């Protein structure tokens, strides 16, 4: 047995106090070449090994981070203003984000390849208390999961170990999203509480339907995770940015945005870097926790504390230049067709944008918001194309 084990080992490294032994990988890397990476554009999808997450390119752009004072569900406790102050953030370069949460099958491939131990204790939250679940783990989180369900019972260190493995496997820079990148990707150009609008139902996301949002209805409380491809993707092609499981980010916990970086980088200077930002809300939380602006802290980087509400979404830095486009609007559904580059100095672009905004405003409150918005973008492109002069300057 010892001889067979030694023959199987291909690499071993020490990280901190932990020894990681790498076995022959069940996932064969097929990393993007620099030439292929240079052809990527927003909305393009790629996958760099059979068990790697499927990635989609998110465009560069700017957005307002945080929430307005009148947003329903915004914390209203004394001295709690963690979604303030609202501030402008500019993401200067495109980057790639996992289309889906990391699945049980994908995390299992990592464990098989490395021998990583993600523990055997996982807390199971209930309305009354947290149950310290001995014997529970990502393999047995307290409810039945299949391979296409999100891996849970994972803390921040587990998430970092996973993205580190992806980086070593592919030779590319996989990482966690920064908190600003997460909100930017979750909003996908929107400024409403949820990317689809200002209301929510359990037919749109997985959360505790015993609670309602604003004057909206209550709904189903599934009390568990569901497959990662459930519900509609947001306009940038990302599934379940809101709900199902909370998602770890790189950032340390900060009580508000005073002094936050404006370039989308990770904010890792804090007196409380033992706690890290988690985003998105989970199957256990009420709907207000699923708002794009909602912030939460997860414990701990120095203490093992895992919950079956917490999982992973990955990001990847794109090192080769990505083909730039000049969208008229930041928010573009991935299936809205090819976007032609339009000169923003063209006099009729303002008219097209006004027409688009009028169309988009009619989407609010409709059950088929996503379809409606695609129609709006088609209308926008049609208007913009009609502006082009014979020389193609406008």
Keywords:
globular, paralog of FGE (formylglycine-generating enzyme), alpha+beta, 2 domains, four-stranded mixed β-sheet, 394 residues
Molecular structure report:
By secondary structure, the chain is α+β, with helices and mostly antiparallel strands. The chain folds into two domains: 1-324, paralog of FGE (formylglycine-generating enzyme), CATH 3.90.1580.10; 333-394, no CATH class. 20% of the residues lie in helices and 16% in strands.
Helix content: 10-25%
What would you report as the Rg, rounded to the nearest angstrom?
A: 22 Å
Unreliable stretches, pLDDT < 50, 5 or more residues? 1-25, 325-347, 365-371, 388-394
Quantity of strands, as a count: 15
Average predicted local confidence, pLDDT: 81
Separation, N- and C-terminal Cα atoms: 71 Å
What overall geometry do the principal axes of the alpha carbons give? globular
Beta-strand residue percentage: 15-25%
Summed up, the helix count is 7
**What order do the strands of the largest sheet run in, or round the barrel if closed?**
3-4-7-15-10
CATH superfamily label of the largest domain: paralog of FGE (formylglycine-generating enzyme)
Q: How many domains make up the coordinates?
A: 2
CATH topology of the largest domain: paralog of FGE (formylglycine-generating enzyme)
The CATH class name of the largest domain reads Alpha Beta
Please give the largest β-sheet.
Answer: 5 strands, antiparallel
Structural class: alpha+beta
Order of helices and strands: HEEHEEEEEHEEHEHEEEEEHH
The CATH architecture of the largest domain can be named as Alpha-Beta Complex
């Amino acid at each position: 047995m010892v001889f067979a084990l030694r023959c199987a080992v291909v690499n071993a490294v020490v990280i901190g106090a932990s020894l990681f032994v790498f076995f022959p990988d069940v996932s064969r890397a097929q990393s993007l070449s620099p030439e292929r990476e240079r052809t990527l554009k927003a909305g393009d999808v790629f996958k760099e090994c059979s068990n790697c997450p499927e990635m989609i390119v998110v465009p560069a752009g700017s957005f307002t981070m945080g929430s307005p004072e009148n947003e329903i569900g915004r914390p209203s406790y004394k001295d709690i203003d963690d979604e303030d102050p609202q501030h402008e953030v500019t993401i200067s370069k495109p980057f790639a984000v996992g289309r889906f949460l990391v699945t049980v099958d994908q995390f299992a491939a990592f464990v098989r390849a490395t021998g990583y131990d993600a523990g055997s204790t996982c807390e199971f939250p209930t309305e009354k208390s947290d149950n310290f679940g001995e014997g529970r783990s990502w393999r047995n989180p307290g409810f039945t999961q299949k391979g296409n369900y999100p891996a849970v019972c994972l803390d921040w260190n587990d998430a970092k170990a996973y993205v580190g493995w992806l980086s070593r496997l592919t030779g590319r820079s996989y990482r966690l999203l920064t908190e600003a990148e997460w909100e930017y990707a979750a909003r996908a150009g929107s400024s409403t509480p949820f990317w689809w609008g200002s209301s929510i139902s359990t037919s749109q996301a997985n959360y505790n339907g015993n609670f309602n949002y604003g004057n909206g209805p209550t709904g189903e409380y599934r009390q568990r995770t569901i497959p990662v491809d459930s519900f509609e993707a947001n306009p940038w092609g990302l599934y379940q940015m809101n709900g199902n499981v909370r998602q770890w980010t790189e950032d340390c916990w900060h009580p508000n945005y005073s002094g936050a970086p404006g370039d989308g980088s990770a904010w890792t200077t804090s007196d409380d870097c033992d706690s890290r930002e988690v985003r998105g809300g989970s199957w256990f939380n009420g709907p207000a926790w699923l708002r794009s602006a909602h912030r939460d802290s997860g414990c701990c980087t120095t203490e093992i504390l895992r919950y079956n509400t917490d999982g992973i979404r990955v990001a990847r830095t794109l090192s080769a230049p990505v083909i730039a486009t000049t969208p008229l609007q930041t928010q573009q559904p991935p299936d809205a067709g090819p976007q032609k580059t339009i000169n923003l100095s063209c006099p009729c672009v303002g008219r097209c944008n006004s027409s688009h905004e009028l169309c988009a405003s009619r989407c609010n409150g409709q059950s088929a918001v996503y379809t409606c918005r695609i129609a709006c973008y088609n209308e926008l492109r049609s208007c913009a194309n009609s502006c082009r002069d014979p020389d193609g300057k406008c």
